[in-house]
Amino acid sequence: MHLTTLCNTSLDNPTQRNKDQLIRAAVKFLDTDTICYRVEEPETLVELQKNEWDPIIEWAEERYGIEIGSSTSIMGPSIPAKTREVLISHLASYNAWALQGIEFVVTQLKSMLLTLGLVDRHLMVEQAVLLSRLEEEYQIQKWGNVEWAHDYELQELRARTAAGALFVHLCSESTTVKHKLLQD
Fold first, then answer.
1. Integer Cα distance of 151 and 148 in angstroms
2. Which of 55, 173, 67 is nearest to 117 (CA)?
3. What one-character-per-residue DSSP string does 77-97 give?
4. Which end of the chain has fewer CB atoms surrounding its CB within 10 Å, N or C?
């Protein structure tokens, strides 16, 4: 169902957005990226965020040669202009259909960095979803799970994220077949 939605959205382009607009929409999430916003308490959640999210930020900084950082301020981290330029340049290498998929995943995970990790196959869908829901999972462990609500939300987020990642990969891959001449 989600793949069909992505295909129809890419075919119809109901909002009439071009490639640059799709890129800007995805990069806009850097300002509010889930893994860049940290809490100051409780200490166990602070430590969990540091242990789980810092490696993703470090990976992205090394992979793309950018600076991201994190913040406990409501204003969030200050994202350098060069970081935006690098990511815009990277996203420009994708076609419009793949960009529709990338934006879809970014809006699901609320994170450009987790999406890049997923698209680059650094993260699996389950990992990316877990990392995007880290604070919620912490609260579930502390207060308990509402099975009909939390479980449904988790499975739906996994399905949407997996569909978006698959869509990006399918729209980005190309294969060629080279036929060799057989000699007698």
1. 6
2. 55
3. ----HHHHHHHHHHHTTS-HH
4. C
The C-alpha atoms of residue 154 and residue 143 are separated, in whole angstroms, by: 17
How many residues are recorded in the chain?
A: 184
Which residues, 6+ apart, have CB-to-CB distance to 20 below 8 Å? none
**Can you give the pTM of this predicted structure?**
0.89
List the one residue out of 159, 96, 90, 97 whose CA is nearest residue 128: 159
Q: What is the pLDDT of residues 4-59, one digit of tens each?
A: 999 998 989 898 999 999 999 999 999 899 999 999 999 999 999 999 999 999 99
Among the four given CATH numbers 3.90.650.10, 1.10.3580.10, 3.50.50.60, 1.10.418.70, the one describing domain 2-172:
1.10.3580.10
* Number of H-type helices and E-type strands within the chain: 9, 0
Every domain of the chain and the residues it spans: 2-172
